[in-house]
Amino acid sequence: MPLDSLTNGPYLGTTRNPFSYEKIEQVSRDLQTEWLTLDEITQQLNLFQDESQDSYLQSLELATRFAIEDYLGMSIFPITWKVYYGATNGMTGTQSAFDLPEVSQANQNTAGVVINSVSYYSGGNPPVLTVLDPTLYFYDPTGNKILVSSIPNDISEWMTNPVIVTYTTNASPIAQYPVIKQAALLLLTHLYNNRSNSFQGALNNIPFGVDQLLRAYKPLVM
Amino acid sequence: MTIARYENFTINRLTFDTDTFGQYTTTITKWFSTRGRVKDVHNNTQITKDERVYTDLTNFTVNYTPNTREIVDNQNLYSITWRGFDWRITDCLETNDRMNVIFMCYRNDPVVPV
């Protein structure tokens, strides 16, 4: 059982449940790169060389990719996040663990994320955001957390979440799996065929559809 | 569920001209390939006193796109090549939900003496 360490040192090195972050924000996402190719899409939609809807299809492709990324909680192309952590008593001067709300696995000895920065608001009025030296922390891919050797003792006591981590998830290798792409093509066909939010009568999912194709790849997220 | 009968075919542009003998000519130029549902072909023969006239009729159902809308607007300027034959468009039906266009097409076989 994971140690419920809400009251017992939420930033110690054990597995924490719940995780220690307070809130997350998505700060950057790829809006350009094509995942499903136009060739794959026009094959699926029986359009072939009818290129008169290409820009519309590309916008559908983007929406489909976002939906799959959000459903799986994985990035098909890199996504940058900002995570906030609160300050607790006894945090300064000791090693602290900051959980990342991501589930990517190390792939071919490459961590699933790149830590862009770890920063904190130092005390004072107004507080100043200070970036920590990268030598003071490292990423632990086995626990999806950042271990900071020491948080400086001038951390702001007044701000709600004075520690901020910015990280980028790497592209997940499963994005190239045919089963994931097939699920995306099913979803894209649905969006192409149904252009209104309302419908007379109930739409039903086909059996063995998007959920079935993606279920095995969806990690359990707390 | 059976497999829907989708087939590949080509949409052509037609241009009309007059040759040096004053005869009308039609030039067929490929515009794009696409894929659509093809209905069963209705084959019809008319026998007159001197000859038999074979006419084939079928429907092609394609997605509603800017290109297919252009065909609906100017159906005399386009033809469809399917299974090696040239089909001329007689009727265009846009579905109400603007998702499909149905082209009703015909072609004539060479006229055969009775």
Secondary-structure map with pairings?
The complex is a heterodimer of chains A (222) and B (114).
Chain A: E1 23-29, H1 38-44, H2 54-72, E2 79-85, E3 96-99, E4 113-122, E5 128-131, E6 137-140, E7 145-148, E8 163-169, H3 178-193, H4 210-215
Helix pairs in contact in A: 2-3
Chain B: E1 6-18, E2 24-38, E3 42-47, E4 51-63, H1 66-73, E5 78-82, E6 85-94, E7 100-108, E8 112-113
Antiparallel strand pairs in B: 1-2, 1-5, 2-4, 3-4, 4-7, 4-8, 5-6, 6-7
Main pleated-sheet profile of chain A? 5 strands, antiparallel
Please state roughly what percent of the residues of chain A sit in beta strands, choosing from under 5%, 5-15%, 15-25%, 25-35%, 35-45% or over 45%. 15-25%
CATH level-4 homologous superfamily of chain B: Bacteriophage SPP1 head-tail adaptor protein
- CATH architecture annotation of chain B: Beta Barrel
- Assembly level: heterodimer
Structure write-up:
The complex is a heterodimer of chains A (222) and B (114). Chain A has helices at residues 38-44, 54-72, 178-193, 210-215; strands spanning 23-29, 79-85, 96-99, 113-122, 128-131, 137-140, 145-148, 163-169. Chain A is an alpha+beta fold. Chain A folds into two domains: 23-27 and 78-173, Immunoglobulin-like (Sandwich); 33-75 and 177-195 and 205-215, no CATH class. In chain A, the strands form two sheets. Chain A has a five-stranded antiparallel sheet, with no helix packed on it. Chain A has a three-stranded antiparallel sheet with strand order 3-7-6, with no helix packed on it. In chain A, strand 6 (137-140) and strand 7 (145-148) form a beta hairpin. In chain A, helix 2 packs across helix 3. Chain A starts with 22 loop residues before the first strand and ends in a 7-residue tail after the last helix. The model of chain A has no long low-confidence stretch (mean pLDDT 86). Chain B has 114 residues and is mainly beta. Helices cover 7% and strands 64% of the residues of chain B. Chain B has a single domain (6-113), classed as Thrombin, subunit H (Beta Barrel). The longest helix of chain B has 8 residues, at 66-73. At the A-B interface, loops of A face strand 1, strand 2 and helix 1 of B.
